[in-house]
């Protein structure tokens, strides 16, 4: 009779190692980038549109295709796909490592408070190490308009990065770091906590139980978990894009001097709604992106659970 509790305790402590979480995230990132790059291009164009050239998502997309060709919807794919793969690798791996700090030593469980802090820490880390420099390059490439590549200032991702470093110093690659940290930290805190909660509420799925969700189940949980972030972090995303896109004028000056100044300037010149510009494309891109990423990641971690956790000696 005394053996049963020991079995339960041991099973409750079973967990997927951080390196497996990192691998699952990298594979999910590749698939997500290829599927959703056009939406990201449209989102960036709308956020940079101060003169009202685009009337909405459909008009923006059709205008880009008509004036620049279909391939323009995949502008910046190389840095975007690389950045997503590295970002999800770091995000999933670091979140798993942070969660080990907040695990209950007796039950092996992580509280929602611990999940929020772990997610925020993973978001801050990915923002500083990967997201900011890659998005600076991606946004500079995406904002270039026209059908003649030879007229573009930036000829490709590497040339773009080199030009930024030469003209704006190495720190130019970290333009907009502050709003990026706030956006990613908040997003991941909410996303990881919500994903776990939806898995438990909808499918009675607990990490380490040796069970794997069906892809459609992971997609539903991931989609729902990805909806809250864009509403909470809209202003940070708009400010991030403006700071990353701006270059020095002829006198060496910058329109926006920092995150707070950018928020105040955009509000004064364009109104409060402008701080949530591009929200609809973000909602079209982030929740589906999370659905795709988690569908892939959960299958990878599910295979690991079935092979190594379900059949592990307890």
Automatic annotation (TrEMBL):
UniProt cross-references to Pfam families, sorted A to Z: Mito_carr
InterPro entries xrefs: MCP_dom_sf (IPR023395), MCP_transmembrane (IPR018108), TXTP-like (IPR049563)
Subcellular localization, as worded in the UniProt entry: Mitochondrion membrane
Membrane topology label: Multi-pass membrane protein
Biological process terms in GO annotation: alpha-ketoglutarate transport; citrate transport; malate transport
An example molecular function term from Gene Ontology annotations: succinate:fumarate antiporter activity
Swiss-Prot/TrEMBL keywords: Membrane, Mitochondrion, Repeat, Transmembrane, Transmembrane helix, Transport
Solcar repeats: 16-101, 113-201, 213-303
A GO CC term assigned to this protein in UniProt: mitochondrial membrane
Entry's family note: Belongs to the mitochondrial carrier (TC 2.A.29) family.
Protein name (Swiss-Prot/TrEMBL): Mitochondrial succinate-fumarate transporter 1
């Amino acid at each position: 009779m005394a053996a049963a509790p020991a079995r339960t305790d041991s099973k409750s402590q079973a967990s997927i190692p951080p390196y497996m979480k990192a691998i699952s995230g990298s594979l999910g990132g590749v698939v997500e980038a290829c599927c959703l790059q056009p939406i990201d291009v449209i989102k960036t164009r709308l956020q940079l549109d101060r003169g009202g050239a685009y009337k909405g998502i459909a008009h923006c997309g059709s205008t880009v295709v008509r004036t620049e060709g279909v391939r323009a919807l995949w502008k910046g794919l190389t840095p975007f796909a690389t950045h997503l793969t590295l970002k999800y690798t770091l995000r999933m791996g670091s979140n798993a490592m942070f969660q080990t700090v907040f695990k209950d030593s007796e039950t092996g469980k992580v509280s929602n408070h611990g999940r929020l802090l772990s997610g925020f820490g993973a978001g801050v880390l990915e923002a500083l190490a990967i997201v900011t420099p890659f998005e600076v390059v991606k946004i500079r490439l995406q904002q270039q308009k026209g059908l003649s590549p030879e007229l573009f200032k930036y000829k490709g991702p590497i040339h773009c990065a080199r030009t930024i470093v030469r003209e704006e110093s190495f720190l130019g690659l970290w333009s907009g770091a502050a709003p990026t940290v706030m956006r990613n930290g908040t997003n991941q805190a909410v996303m990881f906590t919500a994903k776990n909660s939806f898995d438990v509420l909808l499918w009675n799925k607990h990490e380490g139980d040796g069970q794997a969700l069906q892809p459609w189940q992971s997609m539903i949980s991931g989609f729902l978990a990805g909806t809250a972030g864009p509403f909470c972090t809209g202003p940070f995303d708009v400010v991030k894009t403006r700071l990353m896109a701006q270059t020095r004028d002829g006198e060496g000056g910058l329109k926006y001097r920092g995150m707070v100044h950018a928020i105040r300037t955009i509000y004064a010149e364009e109104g409060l709604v402008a701080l949530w510009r591009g929200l609809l494309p973000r909602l079209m891109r982030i929740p589906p992106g999370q659905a795709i990423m988690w569908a892939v990641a959960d299958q990878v971690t599910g295979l690991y659970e079935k092979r190594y956790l379900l059949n592990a000696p307890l």
